[in-house]
Structure formats: C-alpha cells, structure tokens
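R.M. (postdoc): so does anyone remember the format we settled on? I'll just put the structure tokens first.
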C-alpha cells in the first residue's frame, strides 16, 4: 500500500521569508504560517491559531523571498517533513515542517522587487482595478453584469 504525504494550509504569513544558501547553489526560503481553527469553549466558539514552519526550495524560494511579506494571506500546498536534532545542551528536539510545492496568494501579484502593483490600496487590501481595465462605455461596470 502506497502512503500519501500531502497537506494544504491557508492562513497568514507570520514573518518575512529568510533566504538561506546551502551547498554550491542551493537556496531555501523559510517562513511561518498561522492558520486558525474554531474551538468551542463553554458556550462560545473561539479561534485558536496553529503555527507551521514552511520551506520553499530553489528558484521558487528566491521569488517567494522577494515577494512574500509578513501578514500576507497565502495557501501552501506541499508535504510534511519530520525532523529531529540535538540542541547544544544535548536535549533531543523535533518538529514537523511543510515543504512547499505550490503557494498561492496576494504576494504573487507583487512586482519582482517586492513593491506593490499599481492600483493596490495596501491599507485595506483592496486590489482595485488593473491598469487599463476601468469601465468605459464599451465595457460595463461589474454592477451591470447580470451574474
């Protein structure tokens, strides 16, 4: 029987990516993601955050390092990796990380230098219209579209 190791997590980036180099030309961008789950406490439902470490390798990691920012809403699809090590005191430690295969989110629309795209209001997250797509007489406003 084959095993399956796939995970999808949506949430907010908890820190800016940190790009590291390994070997001759290997690259990895590391960041965190927080995803809430709803739990009943007494008569109320409350949001409890779950925190995960994410690693993105290669050229995709370099791109993520340039574009992703703390607080961005993202969806990560990848696989889980269990790691163990000993700290300096000799204590055994372990963690489960997500090795990202694909990422989706607002960061993808940023320029490669990490600056926001034109028409984006960063204060409220409003993307606004893309340049050249403002309604004209030939193209109705979205309120006029019957679906």
């Amino acid at each position: 029987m084959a095993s399956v190791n796939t995970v999808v997590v949506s949430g907010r980036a908890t820190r800016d990516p940190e790009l590291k180099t390994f070997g001759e030309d290997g690259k990895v961008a590391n960041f965190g993601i927080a995803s809430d789950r709803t739990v009943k406490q007494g008569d109320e439902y409350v949001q409890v955050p779950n925190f995960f470490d994410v690693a993105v390798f290669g050229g995709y990691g370099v791109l993520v390092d340039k574009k992703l920012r703390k607080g961005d809403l993202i969806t990560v699809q990848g696989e889980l990796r269990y790691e163990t090590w000993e700290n300096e005191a000799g204590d055994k430690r372990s963690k489960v990380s997500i090795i990202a295969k694909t990422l989706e989110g607002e960061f993808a629309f940023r320029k490669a230098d990490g600056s926001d795209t034109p028409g984006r209001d960063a204060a409220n997250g409003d993307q606004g219209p893309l340049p050249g797509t403002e309604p004209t007489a030939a193209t109705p406003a979205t309120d006029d579209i019957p679906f």
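R.M.: ...and that's the designed sequence above, right after the tokens. Also worth knowing: The domain at 7-115 is CATH 2.40.50.140 (OB fold (Dihydrolipoamide Acetyltransferase, E2P)). Helices lie at 58-67.
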